[in-house]
Design goal:
Number of helices: 4
Number of domains: 2
Helix content: 55-70%
Number of strands: 0
Distance between the termini: 24 Å
Radius of gyration: 16 Å
């Protein structure tokens, strides 16, 4: 089984909640976050309409996506092999 590394940034409130939960169950925050994310992904409905609803619920997602498109158009990117 292969795995893929993801870096996820949480806002201050969610990061604090994750920290409290991890302390309560005596596990590393990253381990708990990985488990919670895996559970959420397993329970996600892959129907495109539902995926769109999830994405629409993310504050600023459209704006960040458009920013990324603009940065790509102007060459403000880093090649994957340079990361």
């Amino acid at each position: 089984m292969s795995s893929q590394r993801l870096n996820i940034t949480l806002d201050e409130a969610h990061a604090a909640k994750l920290s409290r939960l991890a302390a309560r169950v005596h596990v590393n925050e990253g381990t708990l976050a990985r488990s919670l994310l895996s559970t959420a992904i397993d329970g996600a409905d892959p129907d495109p309409a539902n995926v769109v609803a999830v994405l629409d619920g993310i504050d600023g997602a459209w704006e960040r996506a458009q920013l990324g498109v603009g940065q790509a158009d102007t060459g403000e990117t880093i090649a994957l092999d340079k990361l």
